[in-house]
Amino acid sequence: MNMTLRLAEYKDLEAVVAIYNSTIASRMVTADIEPVTPEDRMEWFLGHTEARPLYVAEDENGNVAAWISFETFYGRPAYNKTAEVSIYIDEACRGKGAGSYLLQEALRIAPDLGIRSLMAFIFGHNKPSLKLFEKHGFAEWGLFPGIAEMDGKRYDLKILGRELS
């Protein structure tokens, strides 16, 4: 799958939210249980900075097909060289190598952002994402057992991490 990565712009917010919302029903990717609106995600979108950017990946037709978010971890100065990375992919593009491409790009970009450690927060039952991150050198750094409750079921949240330098 051919993709072109670029910094997100305001015009991308609707597509970013649509991709995010497409993951909610599966209960595998996000702890949101109802769809969100672009207005709901505006503060998050605007919170991305030059040091912690949001990228979109366009398909060969110029449509936003995925996104990568770098976010500050925990908001304390001692953690400034650590970031959380999130990758979301349009349903039509899943299972076609997009995840590997995007994670490789995140690993390539991160050092230029001053990031030394990357973390990902992934549900324990999200085997495809766990496998993807482990394939790219991430290891389990933490576990929150049964922390998320959705539809009357409890789910574990795993923290995966990787040192970049």
TrEMBL record:
GO terms for molecular function: acyltransferase activity, transferring groups other than amino-acyl groups. This is Putative phosphinothricin acetyltransferase. Keywords: Acyltransferase, Transferase. Gene3D superfamilies: 3.40.630.30. Transmembrane segments: none annotated. Residues 3-160 form the N-acetyltransferase domain. InterPro entries: Acyl_CoA_acyltransferase, GNAT_dom. Pfam families: Acetyltransf_1 (PF00583).
